[in-house]
UniProtKB/TrEMBL annotation:
<dbReference type="Pfam" id="PF12840">
    <property type="entry name" value="HTH_20"/>
</dbReference>
<dbReference type="InterPro" id="IPR051011">
    <property type="entry name" value="Metal_resp_trans_reg"/>
</dbReference>
<dbReference type="InterPro" id="IPR001845">
    <property type="entry name" value="HTH_ArsR_DNA-bd_dom"/>
</dbReference>
<protein>
    <submittedName>
        <fullName>Helix-turn-helix transcriptional regulator</fullName>
    </submittedName>
</protein>
<feature type="domain" description="HTH arsR-type">
    <location>
        <begin position="1"/>
        <end position="95"/>
    </location>
</feature>
<keyword id="KW-0238">DNA-binding</keyword>
<dbReference type="InterPro" id="IPR011991">
    <property type="entry name" value="ArsR-like_HTH"/>
</dbReference>
<keyword id="KW-0805">Transcription regulation</keyword>
<dbReference type="InterPro" id="IPR036390">
    <property type="entry name" value="WH_DNA-bd_sf"/>
</dbReference>
<keyword id="KW-0804">Transcription</keyword>
<dbReference type="InterPro" id="IPR036388">
    <property type="entry name" value="WH-like_DNA-bd_sf"/>
</dbReference>
<dbReference type="GO" id="GO:0003700">
    <property type="term" value="F:DNA-binding transcription factor activity"/>
</dbReference>
<dbReference type="GO" id="GO:0003677">
    <property type="term" value="F:DNA binding"/>
</dbReference>
Amino acid sequence: MRHEQVAAQLEALGNPTRLNIYRILVRAGAEGMSVGRVQEKLGIPASTLSHHCKRLCDTGLVSQERQATTLICRASYTQMQALIGYLVDECCADADCGPPRAEPGRSKGC
């Protein structure tokens, strides 16, 4: 994953409304959710939702598909995993101690 793409995705998710939209879509599963339903859940104007969905689509985190008269939004789980993987791969990469240890009582680890 390119550094610029990661920065754009993190910037998009840095907005509380977009983060809420993304969270709703991630929770919705692979079938996604209609724009109308997302709007109901958030209680925001359609124009505001459209603006935020476009930003998420532009970064690749969300896709949209028209089904007859309904616009369905879906989280891209591939992009989500790539973003998380990029961050995890960087964890403690330059440290002598390696990644943090979750086990209690370990003296080594960051």
